[in-house]
Amino acid sequence: MTSLVKELYTASVTVTGGRRGGTARSSDGLLDVNLQAPPETGGPGGATNPEQLFAAAYAACYRSALGVVARRRGVSVDDVLVTADVTLGIDETERYGLRVRLALASSTMESATLQELGQAAHEVCPFSRAIAGNVEVATLAQSS
């Protein structure tokens, strides 16, 4: 468990109704979204869902961590795109679980270098650290 010695920011989001017909609103009003389960899970779709929100948050946090690692090594990752695929499924004990695939793409950096930076970013990213050992995460880098 990570114990914070200095607090930097606290996000506060209130959810009503959950993934089927709910809403999520931040205390500052900047996040205000309707929630619906996707058709793949028996929902009507037409609104965002918790997996999309987690994918967006994780990709943004991880991309920032990648930037930190790159700056420390004196390299640029300005053109790197991070795509997070978050899969909801059932585990071997019949409980819901997640699997994450982080795809890193760059037109200027070799795949091996990008993969190395990507692995190092997991040590910096608070989301990666929070789910380590609980969620299967694959990191794949490719140059174009």
Cα(first) to Cα(last) distance is 38 Å
What is the overall pLDDT average?
A: 96
Roughly what fraction of the amino acids lie in strands? 25-35%
Helix content: 25-40%
| Biggest sheet statistics | 3 strands, antiparallel
Runs with pLDDT <50, length 5+? none
Kindly summarize this structure in a few lines:
The protein is of the alpha+beta class. The protein has three helices and six strands; from the N terminus they run βββαββααβ.
Describe the structure in your own words.
- The protein is of the alpha+beta class and 144 residues long.
- 31% of the residues lie in helices and 28% in strands.
- The protein has three helices and six strands.
- The protein has helices spanning 50-73, 111-124, 126-131; strands spanning 13-16, 23-26, 32-34, 81-90, 96-106, 136-143.
- The strands form two sheets. A three-stranded antiparallel sheet has the order 1-2-3, with no helix packed on it. Strands 4-5-6 form a three-stranded mixed sheet.
- The radius of gyration is 17 Å and the shape is globular.
- It starts with 12 loop residues before the first strand and ends with a strand.
- 20% of the residues are buried.
